[in-house]
Design goal:
mainly beta, five-stranded antiparallel sheet, two-stranded antiparallel sheet, 0% helix
Amino acid sequence: MALLEYNIKYDEKTKTSKVTCQVLEVDKGDRISFKSNYAESGIEYQKASPFNDPNAPKAGEFFPVGAGTKGPFTATVSLNAKTRLNFKCGEEVEAPVPAGRSSAETRPSYNWWKGNGTPPDDDGF
């Protein structure tokens, strides 16, 4: 089973709290889904993917998430801080078509977003 850590931050001045959750470990068989509020969002795993499902994100391929939730997908490996698999977050953008070529010959282009980790992003699991 996955290991989750809840961080409870209490503000003495306002007498309010904020709870955030962080995944510390993912075990083989755990299920992972991806959710976004942006219709054009997607991810790309860098070196490997934790999934074998043909419909799940693959390493080196842009995986559209869109607005809503994709998955869940079952992890086929165990992951933690030392073995995490990083992915970039971004959106597919229309690539300029070079002179003398058709749009069918043009590879997609991506706008990778900066995030919580090393640019362009260092999200994981």
